[in-house]
User: Fold NAD(P)/FAD-dependent oxidoreductase from Streptomyces caniferus.
Amino acid sequence: MSSADTLQAFKRDGRIAIVGASLAGLRAAEALRAEGFTGSLTMIGDEVGEPYDRPPLSKQVLTGWVPAGGTTLPRRRDIDAEWLLGVPADGLDLATNHVHLADGREVPFDRVLISTGVRARPWFVESEADLDGVFVVRTREHADGLQRALAAGPSRVLVIGAGFTGSEIASICRERDIPVTVAELAPAPLVGALGAMIGEVASDMQRAHGVDLRCGVKVTHLEGDAQGHFRRAHFSDGSTIDADVAVVALGGIRNTDWLRDSGLAAGVWGIACDTGCRALTLDGLITDDIFVAGDVARCPNPIYEYRLISLEHWANAVEQAEVAAHNMVSAQADRWPHLSIPTFWSIQFGVNIKSVGVPTFADEVVVTQGSVPDHRFVAAYGYQGRVTAAVSFNNAKWLDHYRQLIETAAPFPPPCPTPDGPADAKPVPVDFPSPQLLAQGATVVVTGHDPSERRVTAAWQHR
Assistant:
């Protein structure tokens, strides 16, 4: 049988399992059917309900504008799949091509897509995390519970962590006229994702809207009352605050623990893969039947020196899922690379923040357009003399221009394309925090080189 006949037989009768039934998993399943795959398709997910959209959880659900149950992802086509929901995967056997489920079942496959995504990083003391009034925001149930707590009119909300999610929650609290304290170990909000200069702008923005922003301090203890409700927080500088609600917004943990003994190059930053979304083994070999997509993938990008990059972006999950699905049912010569430039957006304190490129892959940053005091500007990021990213505050219409600069390796600093360029703009060091803080706040993380990373054994971090 020729290779073309083998591929057609697989598209007709093959078995594909998708582990992770959220945005990337659903879009990959739809793409597989659109590509003509008529074999068996199994969707495995640890949550009980149908796939839903996560960005609205911290943007619309907490305001009460959209109910948590209204975030279900639309179906673009019938995928005719077997759904195994409410039971997580807890192992992957590459020798026998089986996914092991936590309830003891085994799911056979010819090819598998891993899109297990990210879970919220919990508060580090379990008894304190279990206090009534302590929340994380990752699932629909999390958002629904927090929305009801905010609607009850708490005397004060404590937000632990000032990345994008924490800052958006603080913004929603101020919109609802709820007093809010934000505690951030780094010197400023958003510093892990966008660097020190933008962090200063974010600090000014929060304080101007009445946020009690405390940077450079750590929450050391959450105290509850006799009824088990959160009442007080203790800080590393010896101070305390009283509050009724605490939101732990310390970033996410990529769901790779279940792959510990699989032989894949999986760890705290995700699963290493090539630009075709094929997973790598611990030896650096490319697998041909294991594919990765979404937040859990570490994918190289030629624009960023082929370094492995982890993204927590909605658009990336969709694009990568479609590339992975196409490659799962295509011959080698017909496969696509995933080479898109990352984009991200956030709305907080009345400001629309958007980015293009990878800000964490930069050594300098400069304001190229607009006015920082007016919170209407564009900042360009550069690495060794070329443009690598841009961030806009209420000025997103120019980001396509900066995307072109990134794609063509334009010199940094770039000239201002409009008459509103600052007269004295000079590049400054981008000044990102330590990798530990990047894990809590960045939505794009550069995690190493592909060709030169050769690892045969895995040393797992103890938590």
User: Anything to note?
Assistant: The chain is about 20% helix and 30% strand.
